[in-house]
Design brief:
Largest sheet: 7 strands, mixed
CATH class of the largest domain: Alpha Beta
Helix content: 40-55%
Number of domains: 3
Number of strands: 15
Distance between the termini: 58 Å
CATH topology of the largest domain: Rossmann fold
Structural class: alpha/beta
Number of helices: 20
Strand content: 5-15%
Length: about 500
């Protein structure tokens, strides 16, 4: 006898259960947006180019458009990422050729002649490689570069900016002597000292009349502002500072400085790409730090409308209280005390911090940061990513003290991360200045390379400079922007932050 379900069960199935099952099926078919885990990121990081190069194929011929897409993708990677990928044993031969070419394109510290010879040797080794058969535009342009022959360093060796100025000159000379013999022979250098009463515009014109190709300097902000007021310049001038009054600069004026705005821009970009929207900002209550904090907060709130917590402190004793309050530890302790009074007994309790913070941003000197990070850990917030700016780490001479900075992430120059093999030689030759004035030494090195590649950076298809201070580009106003690398402090020493392991778990609300 065949069983027939009661009528009320059929009614229940049709009216309630069947629609619910249909909705569940449709929901399962839709892929919900997810945030990658650290393990997922580590898989992609081990093979960063094989799986993501646009249009990548084996050694079969590809169009020039695809060649350019692949090259642009490689150009967006840091020097360390390229080396890491090249050392991977899983990559195929064609990919190895691409990576070798990308690294060679940044091999210019010995000069254009040496770089061109290295590129020529690469083509001989890879005659059938897609990039050898169809050279990327950047490589074609590299082979036409012309170095500056007469360079004037308009930098003071006395006065209030003389310490930084001397370090810049030392870095410039270090890069000069690292260049090939042929380039040194072809380059004439002059270090020019401005007389106290000498007018800067007249001095620049005098140097131009003496057939100087490029002028490096001035360094002081007031001098940069004075140059910016000129209507025209008959020779390129690379100023080593900037001025807020420089709104309409003359053509051929370029401004390269260690601008904190580059740090802020990249910090916001990194937080954005990692879906970190809820920030706790901790600022040292001093004019310079408040200015940076306000810049960051203004740009962040303009984009995301809100910042979950903005906190200032004046001294270390205030910092503990500030962090305790901002993390809601104080509120947790107050709840425990109220409960104890109600129950009239003592409770064993671990205070609970707030759970809605994606990241903590510290804007403070290194001395305060060494105190702040252990306090954050003590208040059970060691799992929250902590960020700062490039000046959070000094010369590296206090590694034991810098252990307290462990796990802080910050943008920094490749020079600090020992990305250049010849850094050790320069540190020995210029000790102890190379340590105490490391960032200005690196700036001097970049200036030498910049003078020899200025025409490439201003080309219709501009080629960036991958320098000691990061990837450099020049905008329409003549401002040189730096794209820094990312580091994390481990065992008191900064190392490359190669894995995006700082992705938060998305909260249920907001």
């Amino acid at each position: 006898m065949q069983y027939s379900p009661p009528a009320y069960l059929s009614h229940f199935y049709i009216r309630y259960l069947l629609p619910w099952c249909a909705l569940l099926f449709l929901a399962c078919q839709q892929q919900a947006p997810s945030i990658p885990t650290a393990q997922q990121d580590s898989d992609s990081a081990q093979h960063p180019f094989i799986y993501s190069l646009p249009g990548y194929t084996d050694d079969t011929p590809i169009s020039h458009n695809i060649v350019e897409q692949i090259w642009q993708h490689l150009s967006s990677r840091s020097r360390e990422q390229l080396r890491h990928a090249l050392n991977a044993t899983e990559i195929d031969l064609v990919m190895r050729g691409w990576l070798e070419l990308a690294i060679l394109s940044r091999y210019y510290y010995r000069g254009s002649a040496v770089q061109n010879q290295a590129l020529y040797n690469w083509r001989n080794r890879w005659p059938q490689h897609p990039a050898s058969l169809n050279l990327p535009n950047e490589i074609k342009i590299l082979q036409t570069q012309q170095a500056a022959k007469n360079i004037a360093l308009l930098l003071p060796t006395q006065g209030r900016v003389s310490i930084a100025s001397k370090a810049i000159i030392n870095g410039f000379m270090a890069a000069y002597y690292m260049a090939s013999t042929s380039q040194r022979t072809a380059t004439q250098l002059r270090i020019v000292q401005r007389e106290p009463q000498q007018k800067l515009p007249l001095l620049i014109q005098q140097l131009a009349n003496e057939h100087i190709d490029v002028i490096i300097g001035p360094l002081a902000k007031t001098d940069v502002a004075e140059v910016c007021q000129l209507k025209e310049l008959s020779v390129p001038v690379i100023a080593l500072n900037n001025s807020v009054t420089c709104v309409n600069p003359p053509p051929h004026l370029f401004r390269l400085s260690l601008n904190i705005q580059d740090d802020i821009t990249q910090l916001i970009e990194r937080l954005t790409t990692r879906n970190m929207r809820r920030l706790m900002l901790v600022v040292y209550d001093q004019p310079w730090a408040n200015k940076i904090g306000e810049q960051f907060a203004e740009q962040w709130t303009a984009q995301y409308k809100r910042m979950i917590s903005y906190n200032r402190f004046t001294a270390k004793r205030d910092l503990t209280k500030t962090l305790k309050s901002a993390l809601y530890i104080q509120a947790s302790e107050q709840r425990t005390r109220r409960l104890q009074r109600r129950l009239m007994t003592t409770l064993q309790n671990i205070p609970r911090r707030r759970k809605d913070i994606h990241a903590i941003v510290l804007i403070m000197p290194v001395e305060q940061a060494r105190f702040a990070k252990p306090v954050i850990n003590f208040f059970h917030a060691d799992d929250i990513p902590v960020y700062s700016l490039s000046d959070i780490y000094g010369s590296g001479s206090q590694q034991q003290l810098d252990q307290d900075l462990n796990d802080i992430r910050f943008p920094t120059a490749p020079w600090l991360l020992n990305a250049f093999k010849f850094k050790k030689e320069i540190n020995i030759a210029f000790h102890p200045i190379a340590n105490t004035q490391s960032k200005f030494m690196a700036l001097g090195i970049d200036i030498f390379w910049l003078t020899n590649r200025l025409n490439l950076m201003l080309d219709k298809h501009p080629i960036p400079l991958y320098g000691a201070n990061g990837k450099m580009t020049i905008d329409e106003q003549g401002i040189v922007h730096r794209q820094l690398d990312w580091a994390i402090i481990q065992n008191g020493t900064p190392v490359y932050l190669t894995l995006p392991d700082d992705v938060p778990i998305a909260p249920k609300h907001g």
